[in-house]
């Protein structure tokens, strides 16, 4: 028999439906792969007992004719999603002993659809970074070259997908954290329109930017997972009431007659397959249109001011009082200080200090307000572009994965690291990365078209 971990999520669903194998068998194969590839450090916490129990229950449901949309599919969950009874750390020492008493809405939806939890994947601490280098649990290795980083922050999920240590995985984006590691690990990643997925139970980094999403071996796999995770949630006031279409049935393999915009600011540096991709889109019958996005360059600065300002507020809750790690002190203030000094890593502390400044009386007027204004201009770039075209097309990350050594010396702060990713986070539009590193960005709520074009992009040989 072929190795069950070599099947895509979609193929696995088919095999399960045809009773070619059971969920317990697939899950066992993935658990074995996780053991073999443990040195990659893709998972922070593995949950084999939970997985086998869930797989058994899934097989029973299927036998009773009650199969859900992801029935029996073994998945990995980024350690930013709270999972009831399973340790959830955000890759931080401060949460290294945290066992949530509740489940995030999006993971609950996955389990309700029949998915099986294999464990929790590594990330940069509180999703702050592009390499997993800031994780308290150590860096994840890129499965394609173990001297290199997997990208981040959802690097554990991307590596787990690439190394076949799961059939699919969740990720989160605040400023590119799904598409970045998807590009570095050559897997597919999708971030839906802001508000499509509930943020309830997802550890907050920057609330106006945070978005749950998915990573898979193909866009079809991503579509199947994300359509399960989306939908209104009364527990998140920013979650949308819009209907959720069955995206995976809308991948009709054609872009004939579509208008695809190429933003000139997103092509300053391009990867090797760029020219070929442009020709491919033309051959598929799309009309390519040159687009100007004049405020792209500013997106990085705006992102850091806004995200750090919001992070300071969100991370104030980790005070050692109710949950998480506590470092004692002689007074209450000293306990707070000791806890936060020992609990947070350097990068997180740096961002909170800057964020405190950006939201202080002086910093607010000098930085936070101008950043919000610039954020509106960036949004106008998109509004204008989408008057002319259906989607935008570009590389996701035009550079190759840097080495772990380079990451330690600040490679993740390089100019071309996440320039093409951040503007779409600041504006909330849907965006994804195909498993060949190419990116598609769409109009607000038009997640379906983004997935459809990405699916075609993955047909490029
Ligand atoms: N790389 C960016 C950062 O360092 C984005 C992170 C994210 O999207 N969570 O913050």
What attributes characterize this protein structure?
12% strand, alpha/beta, Amidase signature (AS) enzymes, binds glutamine, 15 helices
What does this structure look like?
The protein has 15 helices and eleven strands. The protein has an eleven-stranded mixed β-sheet with strand order 1-3-2-4-6-5-10-11-9-7-8, with helices on both faces. The protein is an alpha/beta fold. The longest helix has 28 residues, at 361-388. Glutamine binds at residues 127-130, 153, 173-177, 205, 418.
The SSE order reads HHEHEHEHEHEEHEHEHHHHEHHEEH
Task: Give the name of the CATH architecture of the domain at 4-250.
Answer: Alpha-Beta Complex
- Going across the biggest sheet, name each strand in turn: 1-3-2-4-6-5-10-11-9-7-8
Structural class: alpha/beta
- β-sheet strand percentage: 5-15%
Top-tier CATH class of the domain at 4-250: Alpha Beta
Radius of gyration: 21 Å
Give the helix/strand layout.
Blueprint (H helix, E strand, L loop, with lengths): L8 H9 L5 H14 L6 E4 L1 H16 L10 E5 L26 H8 L3 E6 L33 H8 L5 E6 L5 H7 L2 E4 L19 E6 L2 H11 L29 E5 L10 H10 L3 E5 L7 H16 L17 H12 L2 H13 L2 H28 L2 E5 L8 H5 L13 H6 L3 E3 L4 E5 L4 H11 L4
Parallel strand pairs: 2-3, 2-4, 7-8, 7-9
Antiparallel strand pairs: 1-3, 4-6, 5-6, 5-10, 9-11, 10-11
Helix pairs in contact: 2-3, 5-6, 9-11, 9-12
The site of glutamine has 12 residues, from loops.
């Amino acid at each position: 028999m072929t190795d069950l971990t070599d099947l895509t999520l979609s193929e696995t669903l088919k095999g399960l439906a045809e009773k070619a194998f059971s969920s317990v068998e697939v899950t066992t194969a993935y658990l074995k792969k996780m053991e073999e590839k443990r040195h990659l450090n893709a998972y922070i916490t593995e949950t084999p007992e939970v997985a086998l129990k869930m797989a058994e229950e899934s097989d029973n449901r299927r036998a009773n004719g009650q199969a859900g949309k992801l029935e029996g599919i073994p998945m990995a969950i980024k350690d930013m999603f709270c999972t009831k009874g399973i340790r959830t750390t955000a890759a931080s020492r401060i949460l290294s002993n945290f066992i949530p008493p509740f489940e995030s809405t999006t993971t609950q939806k996955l389990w309700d659809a029949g998915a099986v939890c294999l464990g929790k994947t590594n990330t940069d601490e509180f999703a702050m970074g592009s390499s997993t280098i800031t994780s308290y649990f150590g860096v994840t290795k890129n499965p394609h070259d173990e001297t290199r980083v997997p990208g981040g922050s959802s690097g554990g999920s991307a590596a787990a997908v690439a190394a076949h240590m799961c059939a699919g995985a969740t990720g989160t984006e605040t400023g590119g954290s799904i598409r970045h590691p998807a590009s570095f690990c050559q897997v597919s990643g999708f971030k839906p329109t802001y508000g499509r997925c509930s943020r309830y139970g997802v550890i907050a980094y920057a609330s106006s930017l945070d978005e749950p999403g998915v990573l898979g071996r193909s866009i079809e796999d991503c579509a199947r997972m994300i359509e399960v995770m989306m939908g209104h949630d009364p527990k998140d006031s920013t979650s949308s009431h819009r209907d959720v279409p069955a995206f995976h049935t809308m991948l009709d393999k054609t872009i004939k007659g579509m208008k695809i915009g190429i933003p000139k600011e997103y092509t300053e540096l391009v990867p090797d397959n760029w020219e070929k991709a442009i020709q491919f889109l033309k051959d598929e019958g799309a009309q390519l249109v040159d687009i100007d996005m004049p405020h792209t360059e500013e997106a990085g600065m705006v992102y850091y001011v806004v995200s750090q300002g919001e992070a300071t507020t969100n991370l104030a809750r980790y005070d050692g009082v109710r949950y998480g790690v506590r470092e004692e002190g002689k007074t209450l203030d000293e306990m707070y200080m000791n806890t936060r000094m020992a609990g947070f890593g350097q990068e997180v502390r740096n961002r909170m200090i800057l964020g405190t400044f950006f939201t202080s009386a002086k910093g607010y007027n000098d930085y936070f307000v101008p950043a919000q204004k610039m954020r509106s201009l960036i949004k106008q770039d998109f509004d204008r572009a989408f008057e002319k075209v259906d989607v935008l097309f570009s590389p996701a990350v035009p550079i190759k994965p840097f080495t772990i050594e380079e990451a330690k010396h600040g490679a993740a702060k390089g100019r071309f690291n996440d320039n093409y990713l951040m503007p779409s986070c600041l504006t909330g539009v849907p965006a994804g990365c195909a498993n060949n590193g190419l990116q598609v960005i769409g109009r607000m709520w038009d997640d379906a078209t983004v997935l459809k074009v990405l699916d075609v992009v993955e047909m490029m040989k």
